Structure to design on (117 residues):
């Protein structure tokens, strides 16, 4: 049972990195050097989402509710910008590219979760 949950976690990590590469081909200003850079970037994005992203989403919860969750895409774009400053081989040029990247990434994640579930 534990083996399956570890395998599921590794598959999700792989698919999130693949989603990041897909966004690279769709969004101008969004750059990932290689698949290994995407794997590292996904780890950093996940860590930032668990810490800074959770804090920002908790603080801005009323604004998120008022905008029907659209403001959370702004927070995700900020997380992507922070991750691009930390992760080697991952770069986002500006906030506009980060915001569009956050939208496309959310859509790709939904599509991947529909396929894998």
């Amino acid at each position: 049972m534990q083996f399956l949950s570890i395998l599921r976690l590794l598959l999700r990590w792989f698919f999130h990195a693949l989603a990041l590469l897909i966004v690279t081909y769709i969004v101008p200003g969004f750059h990932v050097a290689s698949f290994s850079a995407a794997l590292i970037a996904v780890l950093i994005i996940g860590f930032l989402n668990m810490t800074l992203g959770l804090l920002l989403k908790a603080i801005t919860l009323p604004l998120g509710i008022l905008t029907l969750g659209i403001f959370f895409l702004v927070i995700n774009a900020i997380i992507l910008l922070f991750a691009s400053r930390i992760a080697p081989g991952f770069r986002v040029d500006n906030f506009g590219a980060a915001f569009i990247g956050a939208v496309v990434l959310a859509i790709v994640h939904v599509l991947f979760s529909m396929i894998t579930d």
Residues 24 and 30 are 5 Å apart (CA to CA). The chain has one domain: 13-116. Helices lie at 2-26, 35-59, 61-66, 71-86, 95-116.
